[in-house]
Amino acid sequence: MPKTEADKTKGVEVWSDIYKVLSHPRCVNCHVPDDRPRWSGKHYGKTQVHGMNVQATATRMGKPGEQMCTTCHAKTNSDVPHGPPGAEVWALAPVEMIWWDKSSKELCAIVKDPSKTGGRDISSFAEHISHDALVAWGWNPGLGREPAPFSAEKTVAMLEQWLALGLPCPE
Fold it and tell me: Which residues constitute the domain of residue 93?
């Protein structure tokens, strides 16, 4: 809980910038409520389900024996426009980490709940952002794709500041 009203106000302001990152297409396209990644963002026009009938299944990494995410997504970005992006491991976020189409208030509550962040408290969540190769891809998404706002380092700093301010959420 914020210690003062000023902490709450400042904390909600900091959260607002964190939300800009977590709700950006580079993040939410893989934090979906089903097993179908999304293609969204300015360069796609309207939001659409990933082409080629891609389905993540329970593995969150594709259909074993048929089409895994790594069938197209290599360890590095493709050098051609609209080519498959790449990272060390390519997968959808776990089903408990649904961020797609969540309001700032909803996502704020989700991020604070370790049962919805892979068991991570805010410090562990910040550590995850600073070291996960797939998360890092959001700031280096390849040719023609808009990166997530700020940087991983700035996002981690904002999470640490938000924690120090008591983790207030918008009302």
Answer: 5-164
Phi and psi angles of residue 123, each rounded to the nearest 5 degrees, phi first: -65, -45
Pairwise CA distance, residues 166 & 102, whole Å: 22
Q: Name residues of the chain where pLDDT drops below 50.
A: none
68 vs 45: CA distance, rounded Å: 26
| Tens-digit pLDDT profile for residues 136-156 | 999 999 888 899 999 999 999
Distance of alpha carbon 2 from the chain centroid: 25
Alpha-carbon distance of 104 to 170, in angstroms, equals 7
C-alpha 86/C-alpha 138 separation (Å) is: 10
How many domains does one find in the chain?
1
For residue 146, being part of any structural domain is answered with yes
- Please give the span between the terminal C-alpha atoms of the chain, in angstroms, as a whole number: 14
Comparing CA positions, the residue from 31, 24, 3, 14 lying closest to residue 169 is 14
Helix (H) or strand (E) holding 109: helix 104-112
Q: What is the pLDDT of residue 23?
A: 96
What separation in angstroms does the CA of 79 have from each of 2, 83, 133, 135? 46, 7, 19, 20
